Amino acid sequence: MPKRGYHHGNLRQALIDAALELIEARGPMGFTLSEAAKQAGVTPAAVYRHFEGREDLIAEAALQGYEIFGDLMQYAYDKGQPSALSAFTATGRAYLAFAGKYPGHYIAMFESGISVNRTPELAAAATRANDVLEKAATDLSQHIPADKRPPASMFSAHIWALSHGVVELFARNSPGRASPFPADDLLETGIGIYLRGLGLISPDD
Amino acid sequence: MPKRGYHHGNLRQALIDAALELIEARGPMGFTLSEAAKQAGVTPAAVYRHFEGREDLIAEAALQGYEIFGDLMQYAYDKGQPSALSAFTATGRAYLAFAGKYPGHYIAMFESGISVNRTPELAAAATRANDVLEKAATDLSQHIPADKRPPASMFSAHIWALSHGVVELFARNSPGRASPFPADDLLETGIGIYLRGLGLISPDD
DNA sequence: TGTACATCAGTGAACGCGCGTTCACTGATGTAC
DNA sequence: TGTACATCAGTGAACGCGCGTTCACTGATGTAC
């Protein structure tokens, strides 16, 4: 890591990385621009060469998060093909994996309070990620008898909610709320039971 | 509302109420002690007659939340009796109802970052609420063949996670993340499918 | 019922602090000739 | 290759602000006699 005296080299990304670490450590509201600057080895004022301000920096972190998230989801979906079922469960697993591997991004995206409609770019990235899950749900719903098939967007929402709940309650080191089971087991079994409820996997599997 | 000149009457509760409103409006970290004092019509210093400080005030709000929550859960459970199934689904519904009706408490409890083990009182209140759901799950699990019965604490965790996820993603006015369906429908159908997966309700019900 | 006094719940001024943001500046880099 | 100069990324001092917390105080309440 060559430390150039005056010019940083890639301050923009360094600031985003610092922000992510701080968001992870201090929570979405505990994060401060000044501290991020300090951690990147730079004066707070320097931040304004690259971002409009505090909010803009968080939004950028969230944007990168949505992009990584979308990539992971897409990759999981592709890898699960051609089976609609395995593609679907893979995306569910990818959700949890993302939350575990990129906690800073996750918080910036879902807990920082920044609106996903802040910029068209951000909205697009969020939509892309969401669309993968919905696509997987649509594929899968083809296997349910049409007359009793719930809308695909509904069960994509169910799985999303279950995943999110597992992450929030049991995957993060929620202070004093120890998980009774490993988060990934919890999600895996939960999705399994749910899919059985849809008649998509056999009762004794 | 008789405004006594100097003495407030019930400042302690007024401060908690103010805190709850502010937490709801500004988020868990955006809440400030000074503002809560101001809203209660009192100097910031007055807060220290009733609480040890900022954290203590939030913890008290959370405590009251857990107590209300526990009551609601217990009431729902009792009312659903003697059917294990209806008692169980009623507690699920109560979760969502609580989040909708007491958003400030909900945030103080689940998003403020205060540890549930901060005081024995708080831990007890949290445990009580949780135990109701677990009891309902245990009752229900009696109806599943013993050999393929998942631990009751596991499916209580599933339902809790699903409920929490629905609340976080679709019930709160998540900026720019409009729900495709009403939150209560989402939870109701989700739990329905899940219970079908456990073989607890018939496939064509 | 009236007075003296202890108790207690509030005041208001002050503190040190870190925040986000602005500004004129300066040092480093890169390009033109 | 060397010099002049424009561009740009950083500095550092300053700002006004609201925060949580402390302190000596004072006004209101309630009790004893």
UniProtKB/TrEMBL annotation, chains A, B:
Residues 32-51 bind DNA. Pfam families: TetR_C_33 (PF13305), TetR_N (PF00440). Gene3D superfamilies: Tetracycline Repressor, domain 2 (1.10.357.10). Keywords: DNA-binding, Transcription, Transcription regulation. Residues 9-69 form the HTH tetR-type domain. The keyword Transcription applies. It comes from the Bacteria. This is TetR/AcrR family transcriptional regulator. It comes from Roseobacter sinensis. The lineage of its organism: Bacteria, Pseudomonadati, Pseudomonadota, Alphaproteobacteria, Rhodobacterales.
